[in-house]
Amino acid sequence: MNSALKFQDSPYTSFMSETKVTLANGIELHVEVGGKKDDPAILLIMGLGAQLLFWPDFFCKTLIDQGFRVIRYDNRDIGLSSKIRNKGPKLNTIKMMGRFSVGLQNQGAPYSLYDMAEDAALLIERLGLEKAHVIGASMGGMIAQILASNYPEKVQSLGLLFTSNNKPFLPLPYPKQLLSLIAKPESADENGIIDHSIHVLKTIGSPGFVNQLEVIQTAKKLYRRSYYPTGVLQQFLAILCTGSLLHLNKQIQKPTLVVHGSCDRLLPPGHGKAVAKAIPGAKFELIEGMGHDVPPHFIPYLSGLFVHHFKSKN
Fold this sequence. Notes:
Layout: E1 8-9, E2 16-22, E3 28-34, E4 41-45, H1 57-65, E5 69-73, H2 93-101, H3 113-126, E6 132-137, H4 139-150, E7 155-161, H5 175-182, H6 190-204, H7 212-225, H8 229-242, H9 246-249, E8 256-261, H10 270-278, E9 283-287, H11 299-312
Parallel strand pairs: 4-5, 4-6, 6-7, 7-8, 8-9
Antiparallel strand pairs: 1-2, 2-3, 3-5
């Protein structure tokens, strides 16, 4: 780990410390790190509009306890990382979604997932790591696919969680789940925004495993840490303007484990299966009852899957 970086205790978790990392492309990322400095590193890449705290502390701790150094960070445009000013024209998101679903190209986003994958590659470098195991969730899994394809020297092995390669004609998100994600809060005050977050977390989460109190606490913590809806929209545009990753999947030579929840209605399991089918030698694991989240109930099993995958490939 780069000794020039100055770390301080994380205000959220006793076993992690935080720092700001300025990348060679000028982007500043807010990063948390936990575990022994000589243990192999796992880089966690989160999804659309999701701050680093969406990686549950319990998940990070189980990985640390099994002999890994864990790194989680806010992607550009979210949390405490750099915000990107869009100097381009206003884009028609609905029209772009239609084009995206049938495989037509979109243009005009302030940045693409390729830029976000470059951020991840530069972060691995700035942290002084030769390479890292990578787990990407949802949009973070898309970024991880690009990272493994375009920066193979940075990636030891790959874990993908409820993600997609966005090839044309994959199963569409269920309307209720998609609308919860793209709808606006009923009011712009703290209560309205927290209520909206609670609704999203409950709608996309694992049925029967969503803890109401935990969801409320998480929503409040995230809102008070950072609220930047522009970043969520711009990350969504990045997905729409990146398009299919199918051509990159075929180039991935890293050992890959794709994990998906059977109850994921935001990205139905067909998305994960398409990724596993397209990456040479990839394994696919379907977890019964899991949605588009990482509830405590599934964490011991989920972390065990990834740890076994990473350790068997060392």
